[in-house]
Design goal:
By secondary structure, this protein is an alpha/beta fold. The chain is built from ten helices and 21 strands. A seven-stranded mixed sheet has the order 8-7-17-18-19-16-20. Strands 1-13-12-11-15 form a five-stranded mixed sheet. It has a five-stranded parallel sheet with strand order 10-3-2-14-21, with helices on one face. Helix 4 crosses helix 5.
């Protein structure tokens, strides 16, 4: 078993973990290691090309579509907006011009009605939300981020924190550190990571009961050469009580392909029993009902079901409705873990738990807590 040492270990290479590393480096702290269990960074942020490729294969294209979080709201989330600007990322407003479609009943034809615009503009990034992940990663020491490495145990030993992980081959490594930043959802950390000594029972229960945003959800994306619905005066937005998609939006990328995407209204327990091929067939049929026969023939399409991604969802998440939870405590106030463990994932955000902006806020607050509280024995 390989053993090494560092000052800080960051568990999770989603937006929160990467931003925590970014903030540390801005403060001159480079003695850290970030572990991500997936083969690529980003966590719940994933943007795919029309060929279904993720960031690792498609860094040179902006023609990508989000199967994870899609929007942010600059008027309400200035910290995230400032970061997007500082990184030089290009943004654009969600397309909302035109009428929207409604499906009220399987026995009624879809209804065309006036569309509406969000009172605070929904904004997207050119190249998808993964552009933010990639921009942060470019500012980091690449040798400090390790993908395909799953943390499964964290323990206090001799006044330090030992972080035990394994790679895809099962090879086990241990890193001895002073402090650990947990950048995965609280519920996932509680279920997947063994803590020794155990976390205080009240804290562990709160982590366990904190719902993971997006974990019960699934998205369908259909990609086209042109946004033909706009020519018909439609915004691409729809609401449906028939399904399988309950909420639909225009997902077109400026300078790239046109697209529509929808959130499944069918619960995870039902989706589990339906093949992806059948789900895609139902989605195509729904798009054709709403936007015309041309919508039944996308040039590319894909489904991302987060409920069955075991690096996002637990069995409890699959049964949940998927709302935003109140943030649990991010630190341990007493005992062996005091000053050694900080939660920095999005669900720990006081203002925006689960959102992209929440990952930025929680990471900033977590790094501030880390800098303010050194472990008792160090």
């Amino acid at each position: 078993m390989r053993v090494s040492s560092t000052r800080i270990v960051i568990v999770g290479g989603g937006l929160a973990g990467l931003y925590a590393a970014y903030l540390l480096e801005q403060r001159g702290i480079t003695d850290y290691v970030l572990f991500e269990a997936r083969p690529a960074l980003g966590g719940r942020i994933q943007s795919l090309t029309p060929q279904g490729r993720g960031p690792a294969q498609a860094r040179l294209t902006t023609d990508r579509f989000d199967v994870g979080p899609t929007w942010f709201w600059p008027a309400f989330q200035p910290e995230l907006d400032q970061l997007v600007g500082a990184l030089g990322l290009e943004r654009f407003m969600q397309y909302e011009t035109g009428d929207m479609m409604l499906e009220r009943s399987p026995n009624e034809q879809p209804m065309r009605t006036f569309g509406y615009s969000n009172s605070s503009a929904s904004v997207r990034l050119v190249g998808g939300m993964a552009a933010l992940v990639e921009a942060l990663h470019r500012g980091l020491n690449a040798e400090r981020t390790v993908v395909g490495q799953t943390v499964h145990a964290v323990s206090v030993e001799d006044g330090y924190v030992d972080v035990v992980s394994h790679d895809a081959t099962g090879a086990v490594s241990t890193v001895r550190s002073e402090q650990v930043l947990i950048a995965v959802p609280p519920r996932l950390a509680h279920e997947k990571i063994s803590f020794s000594p155990p976390l205080p029972a009240p804290l562990a229960r709160k982590w366990q009961h904190t719902a993971t945003w997006m974990a019960p959800h699934a998205k369908y994306v259909a990609v086209y050469d042109t946004p033909f619905w706009r020519e018909a005066g439609l915004s691409g937005e729809a609401r449906s009580a028939c399904g399988p998609l309950g909420e639909i939006h225009d997902a077109s990328m400026p300078g790239g392909s046109a697209a529509l995407f929808g959130f499944f209204a069918v619960p995870a327990a039902v989706r589990r029993g339906v093949s992806e091929e059948a789900l895609i067939g139902h989605c195509r049929a729904q798009f054709a009902r709403l936007f015309g026969p041309q919508a039944a023939n996308p040039k590319a399409e894909f489904i991302k079901d987060w409920a069955f991604d075991d690096l996002t969802a637990t069995a409890t998440d699959q049964e949940a409705a998927g709302g935003h939870a109140s943030p649990p405590p991010a630190t341990v106030p007493e005992g062996d873990w005091r000053g050694r463990l900080v939660g920095v994932g999005s669900e720990w955000s006081p203002q925006f738990p689960g959102y992209v902006a929440g990952a930025i806020e929680a990471a900033r607050l977590g790094v501030q807590a880390f800098l303010a509280h050194r472990p008792p024995s160090l």
